[in-house]
């Protein structure tokens, strides 16, 4: 095949010898792209306008859905990207700036990548339960743009990647087209006005809209009360009022617009798909084991009951009647099993109302049962200690209590632990054996928590004489136990 001749300089806007412009998904990354990085947003917008006017890229050649052409809306999205540095736009940000839907923004971003004008640096992620991360793009100028305009590029560093090429010159044949693209890049493309916004558009505006789909020319006549209009006819002269006879008879219609008389306040009613998604969203919010599931998948699983007019209360009642699972591995799968045949069993609103009444009665009974359990548990732990129910445990407890609190025969204290009674002034009549026996008995009772011998001696004889009789250590420990017994934070002798 012989290629077509190169177009003359006068017809530089037409590009007929260039191949079809399309970048596959594998080459939409910066490391695999064949284009070069744009130096700034202005030069990148020149390439965007060139792609829009060349017709080399047609979205419908590769897929059957989405926009039909690379036009005004795509250029508007590109303008928002040209003002970002770094180019990391979020979908919500572009939706808010352009007024488009989320799906439309995704379509136009894909078109810019397929045309070789954008390349991924980092691809964003959307993990459920975590904050979404926006993709970061590099604004690229495709190779076809450089070939069409005769732009020469050089690589400053031999070791640098190919996408770092810089412009070193341009052919004479492409200078005129480059000047036109520069004027378009400097002009701000705005959202076109709706057809009903102005009744008398200017002829230049219609002509500009027919000639180019990229450049929007605002030449319409504005006739608003807050601005001086260009119309020669006053709007007040065309206003006609009904006669007084019609007003008196009530035949004339009111000049004020009537308010909507619908019960929902004029809000649009949901269709079948909308009701499915609404029920799915409520289920993911109400049921804990469905919180991590996709709303779209839950809407598909619950499509039968949603189409039958079920509410989230009806679904929760039915799930209670079917039974609850202790462990849920896949919430959507369990929901599909539990909802199988639900709309055929409770096929009337009366049956669903009766089931809801039974469910609420069961919930009230369960609530009262939990209150009784909590009350019994509180009384058990706050009251006296209860004996264990097992007979073997009761026997062991009795043996422990008997060994701890039964009177034991006095054992002779070891010689190492026997304290030699000091000389007691005023008690010369007491023998050493009597003092040692008194101290042994006081120590035995003190181990059982009885401090009566020592406290009586302290009250009767004083602390100094009591210490000479029983020893300073036993007196001090006995007084500590007496002081601790008066405190509410110390308990001994029972559990």
Main attributes of the structure:
495 residues; mainly alpha; three-stranded antiparallel β-sheet; two-stranded antiparallel ribbon; 20 helices
Shape: elongated
Enumerate how many helices there are, as a single number.
Answer: 20
- Domains (count): 3
Label the structural class.
mainly alpha
Question: Could you give the distance between the termini?
Answer: 105 Å
Strand portion, in percent? under 5%
Run of helices and strands: EHHHHEEHEEHHHHHHHHHHHHHHH
Specify the helix fraction band: 40-55%
Tell how many strands the DSSP assignment holds.
5
What's the arrangement of strands in the largest beta sheet? 1-3-2
The poorly predicted ranges are 1-6, 9-16, 198-240, 246-250, 420-426
Task: Write up what this structure looks like.
This protein is mainly alpha-helical. The chain has 3 domains: 9-186, no CATH class; 272-352; 394-485, no CATH class. The chain contains 20 helices and 5 strands. The chain has helices spanning 41-54, 72-82, 91-98, 102-114, 143-149, 175-186, 203-211, 244-249, 272-286, 295-301, 303-307, 312-322, 331-338, 342-345, 349-382, 391-405, 432-447, 452-461, 463-470, 472-485; strands at 36-37, 118-122, 136-141, 151-154, 166-170. The protein has a 3-stranded antiparallel β-sheet. The N and C termini lie far apart (105 Å). Residues 1-6, 9-16, 198-240, 246-250 and 420-426 have low confidence and may be disordered.
């Amino acid at each position: 095949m012989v290629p077509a001749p190169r177009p003359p300089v006068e017809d530089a806007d037409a590009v007929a010898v260039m191949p079809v412009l399309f970048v596959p998904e594998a080459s939409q990354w910066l490391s695999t792209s064949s284009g070069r990085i744009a130096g700034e947003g202005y030069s990148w917008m020149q390439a965007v306008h060139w792609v829009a006017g060349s017709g080399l890229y047609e979205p419908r050649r590769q897929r059957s859905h989405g926009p039909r052409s690379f036009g005004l809306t795509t250029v508007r999205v590109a303008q928002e990207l040209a003002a970002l540095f770094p180019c990391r736009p979020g979908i919500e940000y572009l939706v808010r700036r352009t007024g488009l839907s989320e799906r439309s923004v995704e379509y136009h971003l894909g078109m810019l990548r397929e045309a070789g004008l954008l390349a991924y640096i980092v691809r964003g992620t959307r993990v459920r339960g975590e904050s979404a991360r926006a993709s970061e793009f590099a604004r690229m100028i495709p190779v076809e743009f450089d070939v069409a305009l005769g732009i020469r590029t050089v690589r400053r560093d031999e070791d640098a990647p190919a996408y770092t090429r810089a412009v070193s010159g341009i052919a004479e044949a492409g200078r005129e087209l480059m000047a036109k693209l520069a004027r378009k890049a400097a002009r701000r493309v705005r959202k076109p006005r709706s057809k009903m916004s102005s009744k008398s558009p200017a002829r230049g505006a219609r002509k500009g809209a027919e000639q180019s789909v990229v450049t929007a020319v605002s030449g319409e006549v504005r006739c608003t009360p807050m601005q001086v209009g260009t119309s020669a006819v006053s709007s007040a002269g065309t206003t006609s009022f009904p006669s007084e006879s019609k007003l008196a008879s009530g035949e004339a219609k009111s000049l004020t617009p009537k308010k909507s008389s619908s019960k929902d306040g004029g809000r649009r009613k949901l269709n079948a798909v909308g009701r499915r998604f609404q029920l799915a969203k409520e289920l993911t919010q109400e049921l804990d084991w469905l919180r991590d599931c996709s709303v779209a998948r839950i809407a598909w699983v619950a499509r039968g009951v949603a189409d039958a007019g079920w509410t989230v209360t009806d679904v929760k009642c039915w799930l209670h009647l079917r039974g609850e699972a202790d462990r849920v591995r896949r919430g959507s799968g369990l929901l599909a099993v539990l909802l199988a045949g639900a709309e055929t069993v409770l096929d009337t609103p009366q049956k669903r109302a009766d089931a809801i009444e039974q469910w609420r009665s069961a919930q009230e009974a369960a609530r009262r049962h939990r209150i009784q359990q909590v009350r019994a548990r509180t009384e058990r732990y706050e009251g006296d200690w209860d004996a264990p129910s097992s007979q073997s445990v009761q026997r062991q407890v009795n043996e422990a209590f008997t060994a701890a609190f039964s009177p034991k025969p006095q054992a002779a204290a070891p010689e190492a632990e026997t304290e030699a009674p000091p000389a007691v002034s005023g008690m010369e009549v007491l023998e050493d054996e009597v003092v040692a026996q008194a101290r042994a008995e006081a120590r035995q009772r003190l181990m059982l928590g009885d401090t009566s011998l020592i406290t009586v001696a302290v009250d009767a004889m004083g602390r100094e004489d009591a210490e000479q009789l029983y020893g300073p250590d036993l007196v001090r420990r006995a007084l500590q136990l007496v002081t601790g017994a008066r405190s509410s934070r110390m308990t001994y002798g029972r559990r």
